[in-house]
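User: Predict the complex.
Assistant: Input components as received:
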Amino acid sequence: MKRILFLIVLLLPFIGLFSSMPAPLVFDEAVANTIVHVFVLAGLNVWLALGTAWWLLFTESRWRPFVEWFLFLPLFVPALASTFGMYVALVRFGLVGTQFGVLTVLLAVTLPYSIRIAYNAMYVIGRPLFEQALFLPPVRRVQFVLVPLLTETVRTIALMSTVVVLGQFVLVQLIGAGLVPTVTTRLYHVYAGNDVSLALQNTWLLVLIPALLYGGIGYLMRIWMKVMKGRLR
Amino acid sequence: MSLKVTNIRKRFKQRDVLAGVDFSVSEGEIHALVGVSGSGKTTMLRIIAGLETADAGTVTWNDISLLGVPAHERKITMLSQTPLLFPHLTVGENVLLATPDRSKADAEQWLRRVRLEGRFDAEVHELSGGEGQRASFARALAASPRLILLDEPFTNLDPVLKYELQQLIRELVADLGLTALLVTHDREEAMLVADRVTLLENGAVRTTGTPTALSAKEPTFGDFIELDGVLYPLTRIEVSREPTGEPVVLVRELTRFGVRLGEYRRLSGEYVILPCDASFEVGREYQLRKKQGVVEC
């Protein structure tokens, strides 16, 4: 009974999605751009966030308080400041309307959150445990300790950056200048019009992309754990 | 071969945590670094381990500098206050991970040596505090280190487990010919476990010596009695009376290599201690060291 109730609550917001059939999925430039953005940004966020969090956890530096302040004090301030500042810079460098410009600005928005997630995860696991890993050779350390310990963190960062990327309609439209179509920018137009079928198709994509990414990473991590345990024994 | 620490300095913000520390540890020795909280002993240990960098000074092993060498290349392992086992691995896998050739037989043998046989597949959370420390010790030993660093490893254990682990560490370090550096704030523990003790105060070495020498020289190390080369803290010695009214001194404490209950008679108000235990000769003279000095009989 509890499970049924849980499913009802979970699926309630999607009720509109089941009300009519979406148009068949067309793999066009907008879908390709969206998928590229999701994978590149999820990957960059995981890589840069884990690296920065590791640096924050282990490195003594006079720059450390500045970095912490910039990243952790109210998160939206650096994100907003860097975004608007970047807009001006991107215009000056002629990067508005390019894939690189869109990816850069999306990274600026998501990275502070990713670093915070990674740092908090490492803080909870604890520096002493990571220090024990430092006594192991680097390959063994990464393979058998760091990846398995940070599996859930990687998954959370990837999901968070994906959701933010898919939700940033205005930024993509602004920096993309209409030249970088994505599922989100297209969705805005079809919502404004009357094509319900096309709206449903794009909404389904917005739901499926993060769900598949989350499930996919979880599956890959399970395989990693199995292989890792097998190799260890 | 030995570990040599020369003029190590470390400053955190405005405070000199280590202000020029010098000491050395001979191969095969258990050396204790004793000091109150904030005296710099753990920082010293972390610099030796490669987890912290020194502002000045050198750390050498067999005259080769260890500074700048990554932690995993120093052939040093570390045992902390709490068991730091990787939670996603079983107890055996934790040990296996540290063995150079990942041999299961070796890992099982290490578990046997720390009296955890049959716990290879146990989950880390199933272990008690004492078992966890023993498993951590097995992992530290499995890496075949030349130096093992012990960062107050007995602090969170109850007295019985503490005693067991102390004995185990002494036994295995002696068997394997390892060198160990123990950091502790507990002077009694240092005196009982270590071959030599260095006292750190305010980031500098105050004194170094064998437990016997320090017991005589440093009143702050408390009262110990040395019998046959074994130190006994006086707090653990009881005085009772036999039915004849003769006072008897019972030593309930704990030699370095096992529990030994000795019975010593105290005669006519002088500190003459006659052992009833077979390991001591009747009539032989022993020394009773007190805070004020040495009373010889």
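Chain B has two domains: 3-216, 224-290.
Let me know if you want any component modeled separately.
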